[in-house]
Write a structure and sequence with these properties.
Length: about 250
């Protein structure tokens, strides 16, 4: 039995291994996130009052019905749950996606993207086919056009560790994600050009074996319900964010 007061984790227990980034999250970052997101009761009550007031403003008035306003009414805003030890933001899934336009003319080019994903992630890539026809692109329904890999658990943390600690520092012109990045529900997407995939350690020795390399995107899905908690989580894991700088005034320039 584990000593009293010490946490035990089941992740990686089957094979006796746990990713470094996963250990850092469970041992250090999770407690820090819970403290940083703590909201005093007085502030929480004021936020709930503002939430109820916003819902009342969005609701249509019964005394003076307006059909135009009824059609343009917004969806009810979801309530932000109270921060507790059970809902601390966590990275739930990472999806690595590659779209190969050259596959429209030659399907063999997609094989290079599939193998590159397998080398970088260590998992077998899934083939993505077109769902509809597009005459302008000479695309027919069912044609293979992309590939993706879904990562979870230790594989997800291993990939994020390589991306944050090895790949991003090697990029010369990468300054971080914008503060406005995110889909509003705690998920973030990073896009990279074709020169970045060669920065992974697994690709350095076999890069010349790939006749075609393309850009790729990384989607990081978190359990956060808003962008700020998700941004706080990724920042704690080491992903840089770019703060917008205000232009200097004439007095400051002098």
């Amino acid at each position: 039995m584990a000593p009293a007061g010490r946490r035990t984790f089941t992740a990686g227990a089957a094979h006796g291994y746990q990713a470094r980034l996963s250990q850092f999250y469970h041992n250090t970052l999770r407690d820090d996130l819970m403290v940083l997101q703590y909201t005093p009761p007085a502030v929480r009550a004021r936020q709930e009052d503002q939430h109820r007031a916003a819902q009342a403003d969005d609701a249509p008035s019964e005394s003076a019905p307006n059909p135009q306003r009824r059609h343009k009414s917004k969806m009810p805003r979801p309530k932000v749950p109270r921060s507790t030890a059970h809902n601390v933001p966590f990275v739930s899934k990472v999806t690595v996606h590659i779209r190969c336009r050259e596959a429209l003319h030659n399907k063999n080019h997609l094989l290079s993207a599939l193998m590159a994903l397998q080398v970088v992630t260590g998992k077998r890539a899934q083939l993505i086919r077109a769902k509809s026809d597009a005459a302008a692109w000479k695309l027919r329904k069912g044609m293979p056009i992309a590939a993706k890999v879904d990562l979870e658990g230790d594989d997800m943390f291993e990939f994020l560790d390589k991306l944050i600690e090895v790949v991003l520092p090697r990029m010369k012109e990468y300054h971080g994600l914008r503060m406005s990045a995110g889909d509003g529900n705690g998920s973030f997407t990073l896009g990279f050009d074709d020169s970045v995939i060669g920065l992974f350690p697994e690709m350095e020795m076999v890069y010349d074996m790939f006749p075609l390399v393309t850009g790729f995107s990384v989607n990081i899905a978190t359990t956060a319900v808003r962008n700020p908690p998700g941004r706080l989580l990724l920042s704690g894991l080491g992903l840089p964010f770019l703060h917008a700088r205000k232009p200097a005034s004439e007095g400051q320039m002098l």
